[in-house]
């Protein structure tokens, strides 16, 4: 009798179980530090132990699942048993081995969830009900194995675990006894073994298993990652960016040289570096080349992971770097081996000259960060470092030895600053990371970083592109419109609002004025497809120096390369105000650009910013700004430092401290601040996603989406979904649940048919909301 790990007669695919176990070991063993290699070997060779039953083999043939065909629990107990034989009963590694195997097909849970309540005189009542049921099933599975020993033992001789296997299947109370010992280890770990190092050991071993398991199971060919060297790409950069006499380009070149020179002097003095420079001074290119230079100085092939707050900026920065890389000789046909982008809206494709990857294979390679350069979001990075989700943790080990660029770190919610500071410092220690933090508004985080632009105040003082002019009297929307009309000049204007309702009302009032100007609207209230088209159209108009007006929300604050003559920003946090100022006179073509800060209120005299940022940040910003009539750009650096200093004094770090405690306690799922509850983007249960059948393309996509349910095979269904995933998301909006009755709900996703579009969606302003809707969608 042959034992298979995977078998599909229809797809003509089969894999022998012992071959799969050895493959999983070999795929990841080199990622593991020497002192934990044995633990990983046990994990890899034991993780599918439960597949050595006739129940599971029958399931492979019939696809009919039963409780007896489940394999994770008995596999985890066997792995824990083998680890106890090797490490003894005073080491946390058997517990980590058990937990890692137990959850290799799902998300992580805390140890105690699947252990008895005590470790002495353990009886059935000491186990959670679901665990008692699993124990009963396990003993039946062991009985089945005993009946087929002659077929199974040769496999375990190949695996080098024949002795442990025989002992395990022959011991009378082996399941209960092993779990009791593991409970003892858990009690010991709480008292004596607790440390942040255990968290990193756990996540490394878990990541190694789940990534290798999925690659082996799918038979995905792993392409070799390709790395570029500093010297080669720098020559391309120098040729691409011709020497310019423009002042701004001279400053960009000077900053580039200072950063690289300082890196050469200080690369071995720290693992964390910073580049603090004004907006528009070429930080994208400078930061990337600093990472390349650091890779060269440290030696070896290290991934460069470029992390940003928003998907819109990813597309822009990916485009800049792709344009440089495509000049390389081997780049064509191998682009994904050099560089990939990973975020929820990205196209799923992986380009390699050696193989045409299916969408499901490409998805796996992208989610494993199988490339020399990864452009991704803070969500992907930080929810991997602080996470319990299987899908996120596949790439945890891909971080090892990498160089991480954190661009615009101030976009992270302030309540997580202490947590982010903690996890990045610890990751640099345990995963041998190097970190480059880049921003024009450096927050109070990673304070020990070596500043690579050490004379940065000089560059902040050079720039005189804009000036802030706070207007701190309260203004209703009506009063603001009157003021705007009175002061309107022959210039381009950007108006940045805090809430969608506010932005829609201002846009409507401006259109009603009949200003003989082209007026645009931009926010997350319009479909992603229309948002992209509009950004490109606005850029074209601005390049032609047309005097347009744009009413927007915060979607323009980072990464959108607009250059307006005048920016008007409703009162918000000072870092957001300065980001908005970066869309004014960005390239220094005008003498000076004016940035007005207004204090707008609704009918109840509440600040619009309060609905988004709360009272504390709004009060701090107002108290600072009301001291000034005008603030020149050279003072922004001082202004932002004052703001963050006051924020850190007023903002509680309780949330961060609780998450740090959960990391140290390996609490994945039980407490209020358990690791699995961490989310960089606040989950809003009051929202739903709706599909808009806006045009013929959307109609065709929706028909394809509905046909997915007819595809029985999971992999084939996933492949078909990935073909249309990007197009689906182009036509989806996230909306408050109070609007759900406007949509049809009979197809698995709320949707709006084409004939209903005119009633609910406007091409210029997007979804038609109630006038009293104060919600803000990020």
UniProtKB/TrEMBL annotation:
Pfam families for the chain: Cas3-like_C_2, DEAD, HD
Keywords carried by this UniProt record: Antiviral defense, ATP-binding, Helicase, Hydrolase, Metal-binding, Nuclease, Nucleotide-binding
Domain Helicase ATP-binding as annotated: residue spans: 264-460
InterPro entries to which the protein is assigned, alphabetical: Cas3-like_dom, CRISPR-assoc_Cas3_HD, CRISPR-assoc_Cas3_HD_sf, DEAD/DEAH_box_helicase_dom, DEAD_box_RNA_helicases, HD_domain, Helicase_ATP-bd, Helicase_C-like
GO molecular function, one term: nuclease activity
GO terms of biological process kind: defense response to virus
Residue ranges of domain HD Cas3-type in the record: 10-215
Domain Helicase C-terminal: 476-636
Spans through the membrane: none
Family: In the N-terminal section; belongs to the CRISPR-associated nuclease Cas3-HD family.
Protein name as it appears in the record: CRISPR-associated HD domain protein
Species of origin: Thermoanaerobacter wiegelii Rt8.B1
